[in-house]
Amino acid sequence: MTAAYHELEQRFARLNALREAAGVLNWDSSVMMPSGGAEARSEQLAALDVTAHHMLTDTAMGDLIGRAEQERDRLDVWQAANLREMRRAWLHATAVPADLVEALTRATKASEMVWRDARPASDFAMVRPYLAEVVRLTRQMADAKAEALDKTPYDALLDQFEPDGDSREIQGVFDDLAQFLPGFLDDVLAHQDRQPAPMTPEGPFPEAAQTALAKRLMETVGFDFNHGRLDTSLHPFCGGVPDDLRVTTRYDESDFTSAMMGVLHETGHAMYERGLPERWRRQPVGEARGMALHESQSLLVEMQACRGPEVVGYLAPVFREAFNGRGDAWSADNFRRLYTRVGRSFIRVDADEVTYPAHVILRYRLETAMIRGDLAVADLPGAWNEGMHALLGITPPNDRLGCLQDIHWFDGALGYFPTYTMGAIAAAQLYEAACRDVPTIPGHLGQGDFAPLLTWLREHVHGQGAHLSTDEVLAQATGRALDPEAFKRHLKRRYLQDAA
Amino acid sequence: MTAAYHELEQRFARLNALREAAGVLNWDSSVMMPSGGAEARSEQLAALDVTAHHMLTDTAMGDLIGRAEQERDRLDVWQAANLREMRRAWLHATAVPADLVEALTRATKASEMVWRDARPASDFAMVRPYLAEVVRLTRQMADAKAEALDKTPYDALLDQFEPDGDSREIQGVFDDLAQFLPGFLDDVLAHQDRQPAPMTPEGPFPEAAQTALAKRLMETVGFDFNHGRLDTSLHPFCGGVPDDLRVTTRYDESDFTSAMMGVLHETGHAMYERGLPERWRRQPVGEARGMALHESQSLLVEMQACRGPEVVGYLAPVFREAFNGRGDAWSADNFRRLYTRVGRSFIRVDADEVTYPAHVILRYRLETAMIRGDLAVADLPGAWNEGMHALLGITPPNDRLGCLQDIHWFDGALGYFPTYTMGAIAAAQLYEAACRDVPTIPGHLGQGDFAPLLTWLREHVHGQGAHLSTDEVLAQATGRALDPEAFKRHLKRRYLQDAA
User: Fold this and answer.
1) What is the DSSP string of B36-98?
2) A241 touching B, CB under 8 A?
3) A76, A131, A195, B352 - which has most CB atoms within 10 Å?
């Protein structure tokens, strides 16, 4: 420990406490706030954001980081990792000139607003100049960050969401999957056609009963309601802070099955946050490693565990009891078919586990091309539709079902998309490794006991915080850096083998 | 407008946005937060507090205020008033040395914690040294602020809650009331004895029905649920921000009458905040004037309007309808007697309108004596019990029902108590003036129409923000500075005249 490093810990503790405050306010905005509070709230959040930015870019900060780095040999490995993450945060905050940050903020605000009208109207031309401006300025930002971080422009953007993410590695993994998936999807659909079609249990399912069940399922996974809540919002998410997690969902009274799986997904995110190293609260090294591992934790709980035959077998009688369900639609076999249904579709957020990577690979290819300057925004709709046809064999009839569907680019979030599929791949690797290390995990899951799985995840993933890189976490836990083989094995086992 | 003043407006806008954020987080702490979130929350609030304090005490701030004051002739009256309030905030923040602020924070934290055990145990000796330390340090703070603000030490403390409050004025008003009340109370109790005792409607009254009714009553007063919410908390309060007001209450399923009046009280606070001048959001001059006027607005709605015969006459059938009430307990006459019941009691927060001022006058006398150095903390219990006997004719059997009952002193809030009764007096003045200006107000209230009253209050009180002093607001609205005569007239009319 050195004086400079100690001062840095104090500054980051306050900085991150302000960010935590913003996190709680964001939850409130989505869950509690009446519409008339929006303007005041945006002033509050802007003040927090500007204040945190000033604290990070304060002239003393760079000096302190430099001094602490010179005395690095007096830090332990966690402190050294914390310092590395401080440097990363400082570089991102200082790399880009203030006028460019401001221009980009204005451009994304305008673009997002126009997109909200352009999407339902399926009118790409309407939003095209706004998106072009966002891409133009984002490329400038990427260049500035690339120089500061000594990365390629795209990797500098990726680093904002997935620290040390490497597009050469992603390229290889995604090319492998892009080769595997089209043929595999044909096989899955043929196999699925030989099975009975799943039935949807008939409602209504009152919201209060769904909420009670959702809470019970969260507790089953390990969620502690002394450290969190479940509420309702338009778009489900997991917010709050590690010691006070705010999970949300939405309910459809005619179908409970999707809300339950949504809650389990968000609970996976929550368990990651909850298990972050307590010693390092509000320090950079105490945060989640990145969006790929974050998504891996939600998908591990949802896709690997809860849609698997063991947990579905456990859930079927729980569902029957909760809603007094009777008949074939309530059998474990039917729920298994329902929860593993595969189909080609246009909309990413509705896609199943098998087709989802195709949606992500398409976006990844397009956004890397836009950042390189190889794809003009004007050519995006055509490139989208071609890519969709190549990867999934379907062509969107309009841009609403095509390149206008996601908010990300219009909101300035270029470099985010690949983390979804990196997360799916990591989830398969981690679950496979967990079951290899602790072979009783599937049996426990079949009894509704998540404790052995959670214990393994806490040790190998959650408790690591941002101490290691994503690849280092994966290598230590599974023996390999990000690698699609376990994901492919998982898909084949789940979607091509007949149920026991 | 000048450059220095303009810069000040920007700085205070951000500062107050951070304070608004803290306000929402405080609401969340009381209403939403699971217990396990407390530690993280206190880090968030401390970071906001320290950050706001740094912004206010930044060396540039004093220079900017000084420069803006030199160019005051280029400001309009609202800007000039805003600058005056900025100077006040800056003086309060900079008058006290940082080590004294810190010592006081530690002392109040310790004292409050011990008080939480000492009160139920009725053990004053246990908390005495802690309170003595709080009073000792508060006197030091009062001296420092007195010098900076050019006020007496007590008035410097009072200024924190009631800007420009003047203890000579309060002394005169309170002495007048202290002379009036004991004899008046005897008359009221004798008069009350000649009337039938009120009956309490018999429940149970389900919480959901009470909540629905409470919301309906809030809307009747003028509360707009696009700009606020009603929730449940252990201690009712009105929090949030002017465009997003968070009212809370608590329910007793065996008695709905007190929750309803509690909600109406908090709605009075909320209407004040909601009516603050919109042009001046997040500027010092756009804030509520002080705690006396704030309390006047809750008491005007609760005591002057809603416990008055017109509104009770309107409410009785609304209550009957909401709970399907039948019988004599549900008559307007009975509700009137119930809502104006008077009695001598030990606990301030349970006191009625007639005896409440005695509780406050006692505390005011004791706290001014402690700040002057005329009353040692060790002598507090004796002085309390003597004063209680002199003012109300009863002697607390123990300190739990005596000087240990309120958190205020143990929490360091000396200088706050008088604002309760200043508010009650101002409420009577304002209501009397409103009915003189708009004689149809009581008739409208009898129909459940609060609009004419609210319109008058918006113009004469709410919309004034902190532009004028409390006495100036009262003088402009009622023709007189704070004056107990209207309050006495109100008490005589309500408690000595027979109902129509």
Assistant:
1) GGHHHHHHHHHHHHHHHHHHHH-HHHHHHHHHHHHTGGGS-HHHHHHHHHHHHHHHHHHSS-H
2) yes
3) A131
The strand pair at A244-249 and B238-241 is best described as: unpaired
Chain A CB contacts of B248 under 8 Å are: none
Q: Which of A60, A94, A128 is the last residue of a domain?
A: A94
**Domain at A357, CATH number:** 1.10.1370.30
B104 part of a folded domain: no
Task: Give per-residue pLDDT as tens, B419-442.
Answer: 999 999 999 999 999 999 999 999
CA distance B243 to chain A (A): 5
Indicate whether A25 and A162 sit together in one domain.
no
Same domain flag for A363 and A467: yes
Domain end position, chosen among A57, A78, A94: A94
Q: Are the C-beta atoms of residues B243 and A36 closer than 8 Å to each other?
A: yes
> Same domain for A72 and A130?
no
Distance (Å) from the C-alpha of residue A493 to the closest C-alpha of chain B? 41
Contact residues on chain A for B32, CB-CB shorter than 8 A: 32, 229
Q: What is the pLDDT of residues B446-497, one digit of tens each?
A: 999 999 999 999 999 999 999 999 999 999 999 999 999 999 999 999 999 8
Domain carrying residue B34 = 3-94
Contact between residue A135 and residue A126 where contact means Cβ atoms under 8 Å apart: no
DSSP secondary structure code for residue A242 in this structure: T
* pTM metric for this prediction: 0.95
Predicted complex ipTM: 0.94
- On whether both A427 and A395 belong to a single domain, the answer is yes
On whether the CB atoms of residues B392 and B344 are closer than 8 A, the answer is: yes
Which of the following is catalytic: A9, A85, A266, A367?
A: A266
